[in-house]
Amino acid sequence: MRFPADFAWGAATAAFQIEGATRADGRGVSIWDTFAATPGRVLGGDTGEPAANHYRRYAEDVALLRSLGIGNYRFSLAWPRIQPDGTGPGNPAGLDFYDRLVDELLAAGIEPWPTLYHWDLPQPLEDAGGWPARDTALRFAEYAAIAHRRLGDRVRTWCTINEPWVVAFLGYASGEHAPGRREPASALAATHHLMLGHGLAAAAIRGQGATTTGTRPGTPAVGIVLNAQPIRPHEGSVADLDAARRVDGVRNRIFLDPLYHGRYPDDVRADLADVSDFAFVRDGDLTTIAAPLDFLGINYYSPASVTGAAGKVDPELLEPAGDGPSRLVGCEDVGVLRGAEPRTDQDWEIDATGLTELLLRLAVDYPGTPLYVTENGASYRDEVADDGAVHDPRRASYLDQHVRATHAALTAGAPVKGYFVWSLLDNFEWAYGYSERFGIIHVDYDTQRRTVKDSGRWYGRLAATGAVPPLAGSD
């Protein structure tokens, strides 16, 4: 099984999860610094220190990327490192760090893919209202312009927002993520302002024109990254079909329809009428949001099976409902099935068919845009063995299945142009702290020693050749 020669193979990370150095060189406080410092919010009381200390060890990490033959690196810029208060001029030391990182990547022959926002909102902006406040979207566009002015002579590809559903619904509805608010109506306002922020940032980057200076002049490519998810009815009943429609609305279409059609779906607005009247949408907003994308990034981990008759299903088959507002605003009565075995050590269902299904659905329902799998991976709590290696056959098998699922979608006609494994390094896994390991490179947090896992070597062979290599122990 072989991929096209120009297929982009990459690895992905996020600033707060790997950089550490949270007080270094003028970096400001983010909502995740505040959230992690609040007792009971993060497993084990873990914080963004030391993470993988990438801020000081970035050259070593780039060298590892190069040694594995991975030609693309998706990372995020820390907004509080560039604008400590979320406003004003750029912090020279913070911008200098990303200068050095981009230069190091290019010298190694690796394409940089920065993401402007991967969840680390400067705390002063949250204090002023956060993403439910319209002003945050305006400040985000200013930050995007600062980053592009500094790096745009060398960076060709820009991701604006990573997983706005997580930011809005886990951050402002269920409170599972920073800033930990439980305000369903605010989650919907945050959804709109995240999408508006994307549109304004894209306009700011494009408005600065094609780069004519630096080492790599050219027109920037701008896209957004969604964690869209296949939503499947548990059975064929009317109740289950309607539950799937409703969940698909607040999980997928509330983002995809504004991007591609310049509107929020009528049925979604009707379903959410008791929560919000969508008065936060102003004239011109949807036109800004719907500016053509150069690409769409998709982060995929699992599908979801839902039922509208949760009371008739064995409770052991359902995901726990939790003790606060639902992350699925307007779908509080919907039951989510646990899904089949096998599962990762993080207890996430493994179903690679969902990736093929999702990519083909996007190709049919939202055509015309190149698609990239910008995150895909699995957490297994692997350790360094006595022989000094990290043997993680389950992760290698997981990646093999999902790479093949990507190929199936490509063969069936989906315009898939690349795949990025999550994650390059073991890291701070948000509310799970350091208890979960997604990396294809193991990090010893006490010594910061890096060890390439067996899955990393397997993925490196794939990235270097474009052909799916055999798994260890297979023919």
From TrEMBL:
EC supergroup of this enzyme: hydrolase
Pfam families in the record: Glyco_hydro_1 (PF00232)
One GO cellular component term noted in the UniProt record for this chain: cytosol
Keywords from the UniProt entry: Carbohydrate metabolism, Cellulose degradation, Glycosidase, Hydrolase, Polysaccharide degradation
Catalytic residues as annotated in Swiss-Prot or TrEMBL: E163, E375
EC number: 3.2.1.21
PROSITE patterns from the UniProt entry: GLYCOSYL_HYDROL_F1_1 (PS00572), GLYCOSYL_HYDROL_F1_2 (PS00653)
InterPro entries given in the database record: GH (IPR017853), GH_1_N_CS (IPR033132), Glyco_hydro_1 (IPR001360), Glyco_hydro_1_AS (IPR018120), Glyco_hydro_1_beta-glucosidase (IPR017736)
Any one Gene Ontology molecular-function term assigned to this protein's record: beta-glucosidase activity
The reaction(s) this protein catalyses: Hydrolysis of terminal, non-reducing beta-D-glucosyl residues with release of beta-D-glucose
Binding, substrate: Q17, H118, N162, Y301, W422, E429, W430
GO aspect biological process, one term: cellulose catabolic process
Highest taxon listed in the record's lineage: Bacteria
Family in the record: Belongs to the glycosyl hydrolase 1 family.
Protein name, as recorded: Beta-glucosidase
Source organism: Nocardiopsis gilva YIM 90087
